Amino acid sequence: MRTMCPPTAGRESDFERAYGPAGEWARLFRRADGYLGTELLRRSDNQGEYLTLDRWTSRPSYEAFRSR
Fold first, then answer.
1. Second label for 39, Cα 20 to 30 Å away, from 7, 10, 51, 56?
2. DSSP secondary structure code for residue 68 in this structure
3. What angle do CA 63, 64, 66 make, to 5 degrees?
4. Coil, strand or helix: which one is 9?
5. Which three-class secondary structure state does DSSP give residue 15?
């Protein structure tokens, strides 16, 4: 799954902590079967734009998590 995420200006470090691989977002996903990990990427040409990449073993694993 991938998500484009614009953080609030001036709160980028809070955003990175929450949505990075050790953040609250990943901790929520870690409780689900089939979750493999999260990456948070920041655009080099736009410091205010991020992309989260959440990896799952399969689409059904992700869908099962979403249905809870």
1. 10
2. -
3. 60
4. coil
5. helix
- pLDDT score recorded for residue 63: 94
Question: Cα(5)–Cα(45) distance, rounded to whole angstroms?
Answer: 15
pLDDT tens-digit map of 9-47: 888 889 899 988 999 989 999 999 999 999 998 887 877
Element housing 44 (H / E):
none
Tokens of 42: 């920041």
For residues 16 and 22, the answer to whether their CB atoms sit within 8 Å is no
Pick the closest to residue 19 from 33, 31, 7 (CA basis).
Answer: 7
Q: What is the largest CA-CA distance in the chain?
A: 37
